[in-house]
Write a structure and sequence with these properties.
single chain, Metal Binding Protein, Guanine Nucleotide Exchange Factor, Chain A, seven-stranded antiparallel β-sheet
């Protein structure tokens, strides 16, 4: 199947694996903040996990310089390891607390995530995949990107923590 056909094929998050899978993507990922494009790449990674919309990780070099400011505190993912966070400092100076994260030393099987960063789409002004505006995964912990090709229900909304 061609890459273009793959982009058009509907995906159910209930068909995604657990543990998650990291897959390269050549979709056009754009992140906007304060009226400026701060990420524009066709070299992202998608993390696909049961019940979650994909999380897009972009190469750190695709992020506008000065946008990311490391902050204290980590979280632990049973699959990917220790996540560290960034405040996202918009071109205007506005700061989005812990608006992005990365895995500086991902666990075995997730090494591809090193050198990549993920953004919470609901905290940015606009995130798009191939021109389609993304809807943020419900809740404020997970950072999934919902597009029309991805179907749920999705973990993150009230009452879904036990899934």
């Amino acid at each position: 199947m061609s890459e273009d056909a793959d982009r058009l094929t509907p995906e159910s998050v209930w068909d995604y694996p657990r543990p998650p899978l990291v897959v390269p993507s050549h979709e056009h990922v754009v992140i906007e903040l304060d009226g400026e494009t701060v990420v524009d790449t066709r070299r992202s990674l998608r993390v696909l996990e049961t019940s979650h919309p994909p999380v897009y990780y972009v190469p750190i070099e695709a992020v506008s310089p000065g946008l990311l400011r490391p902050v204290e505190g980590t979280t632990w993912c049973e699959f990917k390891g220790t996540a560290s966070y960034f405040d996202v400092v918009a071109p205007s100076g506005r700061t989005i607390a812990r608006g992005a994260w990365h895995y500086p030393q991902p666990t075995p099987g997730f090494e591809a995530l090193a050198g990549h960063v993920a953004f919470y789409p609901g905290r940015m002004d606009r995130c798009t995949v191939d021109g389609e505006t993304v809807v943020a995964q419900p809740g404020d912990f997970y950072g999934g990107w919902i597009t029309s090709r991805v179907t749920g229900p999705f973990k993150g909304a009230p009452g879904t923590s036990g899934w």
